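TICKET: design request
STATUS: open
ATTACHED STRUCTURE:
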């Protein structure tokens, strides 16, 4: 059983209180009306499925009912961090120890969304 820390409640609770909602940090199209059917389909249905560090969206369904992000290792199921919506992860595939990558890589991740 996973024990998950809710960054809003400030408590670690059992996983039954939470529900995963998919990949985090997915950038919405700037102009949905201008997207082709293929671009719109990619946005709606295609998600990364990496082996290793992955950023996910979760909801504390039984507690505060707020959405937050989880950085999880998909092989070991280890939860490396949780953080509030709008915050940036400190652990990424490029910086697995939690140290920030160089400034240019950080800027690129802001523009493209966080990729794991």
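STATUS: resolved
RESOLUTION: sequence designed for all positions
ATTACHED SEQUENCE:
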């Amino acid at each position: 059983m996973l024990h998950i820390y809710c960054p809003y409640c400030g408590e670690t609770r059992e996983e039954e209180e939470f529900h995963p909602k998919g990949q985090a940090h997915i950038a919405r199209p700037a102009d949905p009306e201008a997207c082709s059917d293929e671009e719109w389909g990619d946005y709606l249905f295609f998600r990364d499925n990496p082996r290793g560090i992955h950023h996910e969206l979760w909801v504390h369904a039984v507690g505060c009912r707020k959405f937050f992000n989880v950085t999880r290792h998909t092989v070991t199921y280890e939860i490396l961090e949780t953080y509030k919506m709008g915050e940036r992860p400190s652990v990424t595939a490029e910086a697995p120890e939690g140290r920030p990558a160089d400034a240019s890589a950080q800027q690129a991740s802001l523009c493209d969304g966080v990729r794991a």
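CLOSING REMARK: Strands lie at 3-6, 11-14, 19-23, 53-59, 67-73, 79-84. The longest helix spans residues 103-112.
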